[in-house]
Amino acid sequence: MNNRIQDTVSGLHVINELLRKYVREGALCLEEKKTIWETYKNIKDTNSLIEDAEQKAHNDIDGLYSDACLLYTESKECTEILKSNAVVFSSFEGETVYKWIVAPYEKSWRTESEKANELWRKYSGLSNRLDSMFYGGCSEEEIKKVEEECDATNEQYKALKKKYEHLYDEYIEARNKWIGLISFDLMLLDVLANKLAVVSQCIMNDITIIKKEGGV
Amino acid sequence: MTRLLKETTKELDLIDPAICTFVWRVCNNMLFEEIRCTDFILLMNLREPIPRIRKRNREDGRICYMICELSKHIYRKNLTEHWINTILEKFNIARDTYDHHHYINSNSSKANIEFASDIQTAIKNGLNQG
Questions:
Q1: Which of A67, A154, B4, B18 is least enclosed, having the fewest CB within 10 Å?
Q2: Which residues of B are less than 8 Å from A191 in CB distance?
Q3: What is the crossing angle of helices A186-212 and B17-27, to 10°?
Q4: CA distance to partner chain B, nearest, from residue A199 (Å)
Q5: What is the spatial distance between Cα A16 and Cα A13, in angstroms, rounded to a whole number?
Q6: Which ipTM was obtained for this model?
Q7: Which residue of B has its CA nearest to A65?
Q8: Cβ pair B37:A192 closer than 8 A
Q9: What's the rounded Cα separation, in Å, for the pair A7 and B43?
């Protein structure tokens, strides 16, 4: 199983690949931008990384040193790419990516909601008609026919309402999950990469001192 | 278990750098003289040597508000008071001033209400990064 540092190295590697592509082609597709943010989000908790490194220092200090070297290389690479291509990266357009992700969820629940509203209107009409039929001297057979249609429409409405409420919950869930994209830009990634470079350097320094002192 | 990674442990954050970044965008060059974002993050995380910061004239109240709002997001709650006092010291603001001036409410000036809203948005944006 990978540890936190290895996961961070892999994440940074993915991000660096995409950043290089961004520089090479001058643009990234929305899916790729989504990947950058999702990966950033997954690796940004440096406190957990430090705690994980501490654990590994007790169990496999040489492995930790190798991981820290890789982390240093990837994070330095990331800061270099960002520094040398500030203009290319000036517009990440996170809001566009957000809208692109969330739009299908919104469309789904709105479509079902409109269908449900239509059924509700039909049901209300039938219900009103039934009321007037009771007092209008209609035959039992006629009333029964409309009553059945009214009940069936109500059942259809209830089923559709349940469906669109579920779709609405999914839409809200998606909105909450991806809302951070709106305010995200690559400066946040730069801050993180700088921090990861410092942390990996500290881990290497600590291990060098531990080794010098003959520990672990 | 004794901690082995002494220097690395000092890199544990007290407050999320993403939150600091968004707050810095609101406050830099307004509440205090221009400072690099990375230095602001180091300052907010009390990283030694703590970078210097120069507050602007007549901005004590808004700085107190900023400190108060950020203090709600300190990871280690037991360090909150220590954090507030240290940051106040760095801004050269007395604790007494902070205790009386860290509120912005509906009776505050329009500019201060807007500032408070910007700070709330900045913090929310930081929290939304995960």
A1: A154
A2: 17-18, 21, 37-38, 41
A3: 130
A4: 6
A5: 5
A6: 0.94
A7: B5
A8: no
A9: 28
Residues B24, B18: Cα–Cα separation, whole Å: 10
Sketch the domain layout of chain A as residue ranges: 4-92+185-212, 102-179
B55: helix, strand or coil = strand
Sign of CA dihedral A193, B72, B70, B44: negative
Q: What is the pTM of this model?
A: 0.91
- Residue B18, number of CB atoms within 10 A of its CB: 25
What sign has the CA pseudo-torsion A118, A119, A123, A126? positive
Alpha carbon distance A43, A193 (integer Å): 10
CA distance A122 to A22: 53
What is the SS3 assignment for B28?
strand
**Contact (CB, 8 A) for A77 and A189:** no
Residue A58, both tokens = 């007790």
With an 8 Å Cβ cutoff, are B4 and A50 in contact? no
Task: Tell me whether residues A202 and B12 touch, CB distance under 8 A.
Answer: no
Residues on chain A touching B11 (C-beta within 8 angstroms): 46, 50, 195, 198-199, 202
Is residue B18 within 8 A of residue A188, CB to CB? The reply is yes
* Phi/psi at B118 (5° precision): -60, -40
Beta-carbon separation of B125 and A183 below 8 A: yes
In angstroms, the CA B124 to CA A133 distance is: 57
Tens-place pLDDT, residues A178-203: 999 999 999 999 999 999 999 999 99
Cα–Cα distance for residue pair A102/A26, rounded to 1 Å: 25
Q: DSSP of A95-132, one letter per residue?
A: HHHHHHHHHHHHHHHHHHHHHHHHHHHHHHHHHHHHHH
pLDDT per position as a tens digit, B41-72: 999 999 989 999 999 999 999 999 999 999 99
Question: Is the N-terminal amide bond of B51 cis, ω within 30° of 0?
Answer: no
Q: Which amino acid is at A152?
A: A
